[in-house]
Design a protein that fits this description.
By secondary structure, this protein is an alpha/beta fold. The protein has 11 helices and 7 strands. It has a 7-stranded mixed sheet, with helices on both faces. A hairpin with a 5-residue loop joins strand 3 and strand 4. The radius of gyration is 17 Å and the shape is globular. The C terminus is likely disordered. The structure holds adenosine-5'-triphosphate and magnesium ion.
């Protein structure tokens, strides 16, 4: 199996989904097969990949709750090289339905382990804005945590809680989980306040912070309404270029995996 990467931050609206679908499209453009698993009941990733939620037959809900083989829920998207396991509205109930189930944190991991994907597939897990069971399933299934952080005054609020959740999952369920990359999103023109935020995030994450930052760009906002990624909707836009760079960084990080407790020099 290739890499399994959870895109998570329990803070809402920080660019998780935009990052997931655009990195997916950029990786596919670079020849890498990608599977996006939409773990958010809002279904934004499914929509941005052009999937009509109401017409969706199988979803990640059926996989997590009813044990449907993951393969049966995978659909092609309009983005060449990107397939998707869509979300559905009933996923909102999954958090509650899973609570009483044994092995509830392991559902996604087991589903992935039972699935044969094309070699080198990068699996991106788009998490909802919470640290509930859906996100815990993602953190248990993934080897890597990829954290988008919005460049704003409260950027680091809640990040400590995310890191603590990661540590808990690591000690109880998934020792191989690591933060592989952190990216600053919706970066505007340089201001004293914003530069201070960037410095703080840099000081917190050191070398995990991506060199690439994602600019605030209307193309990123307009694409989902067109059922598209910015890469496909506005291929020449600054945000599309930034996501192509970020995808390259993500591939490079995969080649120099940093073992737990050590630092790159
Ligand atoms: N680089 C950008 N430039 C401009 N707008 C952006 C950019 N990235 C994201 N947005 C917009 O910001 C909003 C939040 O982005 P997105 O949905 O990706 O965040 P999220 O973290 O997935 O949200 P949620 O927590 O609800 O799942 C969306 O309206 C999106 O179109
Ligand atoms: Mg989202």
């Amino acid at each position: 199996m290739g890499r399994v990467i959870a895109v998570a931050n329990q803070k809402g609206g920080v660019g998780k989904t935009t990052t997931t679908v655009n990195v997916a499209a950029a990786l596919a453009e670079q020849g890498q097969p990608v599977l996006v698993i939409d773990l958010d009941p809002q279904g934004n990733a499914s929509q941005a990949l052009g999937l009509d939620r109401s017409a969706t037959e199988a979803s990640i809900y059926d996989v997590l709750i009813d044990g449907l083989p993951l393969k049966k829920a995978i659909v092609a998207t309009r983005v060449k090289g990107v397939s998707c396991v869509p979300a559905s509205v009933d996923l909102a109930g999954a958090e509650v339905e899973l609570v009483s189930e044994s092995g509830r944190e392991l559902r996604l991991r087991q589903a992935l382990e039972r699935t044969k994907l094309p070699a080198n597939t990068v699996v991106l897990l788009d998490c909802p804005p919470s640290l509930g069971l859906l996100t815990v399933n993602a953190l248990t299934a993934a080897a890597e945590l990829f954290v988008p952080i919005q460049a704003e005054f409260y950027a680091l609020d809640g990040v400590g809680q995310l890191v603590r959740t990661m540590e808990l999952v690591r000690s109880a369920l998934n020792p191989s989980l690591e933060i592989s990359l952190v990216v600053l999103t919706m970066v505007g023109e340089s201001t004293v306040a914003q530069d201070r935020v960037l410095d703080e995030v840099q000081a917190y994450f050191f070398e995990r912070l991506a060199q690439t930052t994602i600019p605030r760009d209307p193309a990123a906002h307009a694409a989902p309404a067109a059922g598209s990624t910015a890469i496909d909707f506005a291929p020449e836009s600054p945000v599309a270029d930034a996501y192509r760079q970020l995808a390259k960084e993500l591939l490079a990080v995969g080649k120099v995996a940093v073992p737990s407790g050590t630092k790159k020099d």
